[in-house]
């Protein structure tokens, strides 16, 4: 069975193509739930108008499915609470000049 930490590590491969940073560093992963081999990831985008939502869902499924013990992956995109740069890691803030 994968752990939340395993899933989070896999999600570092999901890259925002515009910013060039991963979704974990950007603070766009809002939640990870693991129940047996079933994984649910809640994520957001930097803005509701961002067109990459379907691509992100596909990448989440692709990278998390590679983990041992994962039998299903589901993702949900949310906009509450709205994403702000405060959610970014210190490394991401530095890379983007915040």
From TrEMBL:
Coiled coil: none annotated. InterPro entries: Fe-S_Maturation_MIP18, FSCA_dom_sf, MIP18-like. Residues 5-74 form the MIP18 family-like domain. It comes from the Bacteria. SUPFAM superfamilies: Fe-S cluster assembly (FSCA) domain-like (SSF117916). Signal peptide: none annotated. It holds the Pfam family FeS_assembly_P. Transmembrane segments: none annotated. PANTHER family: FE-S PROTEIN MATURATION AUXILIARY FACTOR YITW (PTHR42831). This is Metal-sulfur cluster assembly factor.
